Amino acid sequence: QAEDGIRDAQESRGLGDVYKRQLFPRPAELESQTLRVGVERFGRQYWLYVLAAGLIALGFADFPLMAYHFRAAALTPEEWIPTFYSFAMAVDAVSALGFGRLFDRKGLPILALACALSACFAPFVFYGSLSAVLVGLILWGVGMGAQESVMRAAIASMVSPEKRATAYGVFHTAFGVCWFAGSALMGFLYDRSLVSLVVFSVVIQLAAIPLLLGIKAEKRTTDP
After folding, report:
1. Number of other CB atoms surrounding residue 220 within 10 Å
2. How far apart are CA 92 and CA 142, in angstroms?
């Protein structure tokens, strides 16, 4: 019976694929035909955006570092830490949906708003009481939600379809390198100066906001 069920599911999926091909025989035609800057190469908007995302990645602490702090500072019983992570991921999921819908309406300023909110997580997480830590985790989850939805979606509006795969690859490479460098630096700062860690995290993320708003202003002047 299980094999029959699998076979029926595969046949249904095959029929569905045939139906979709009949409805949309040339899916590339679904792409917007609006002229975009940077068909031959990536434009200035794209590189500013990569820089802004890199700054966000540099200052965004990993949860393992926060979990280490929770244990080292005895803020909570160790068995509660996975629950804290689950709580932050729930905020991540909800905020990804919310910011995604807002991004469709307002564009990049929504990412700037998410950056402003999430940049404030470090003081709450590393210097707060248990209740402050929960606030910090909410702000951290907001940042994660924005990174997993809006941050990636924005690239599609800056790069032509012919270059989009390469654009995503370059973006993720730069983002990953900055995330690694920031994580290593914040781990180094944690052992030496918690104040320096918090200041670095907040300032470096807030530095991305003018870039994001500048991209919006430039887009307004270059779009047809």
Report:
1. 9
2. 6
151's tokens: 């941050």
Among 45-54, 75-84, 114-123, the range scoring the smallest mean pLDDT is 75-84
Regarding predicted confidence, which is higher, 205 or 217?
Answer: 205
Task: Give residue 35's Cα distance to chain centre.
Answer: 27
Rounded to two decimals, what is the model's pTM?
A: 0.75
Amino acid, res. 119? A
Q: What are 146-184's pLDDT values in tens digits?
A: 888 888 888 888 888 888 888 999 999 999 999 999 999
Using a CB cutoff of 8 Å and minimum separation of 24, what contacts does 82-91 make? 84/133, 84/134, 84/137, 87/134, 87/137, 87/141, 88/63, 88/137, 88/138, 88/140, 88/141, 88/144, 89/141, 89/144, 90/141, 91/137, 91/138, 91/140, 91/141, 91/142, 91/144, 91/145
| Rounded distance between C-alpha atoms, residue 117 and residue 112, angstroms | 9
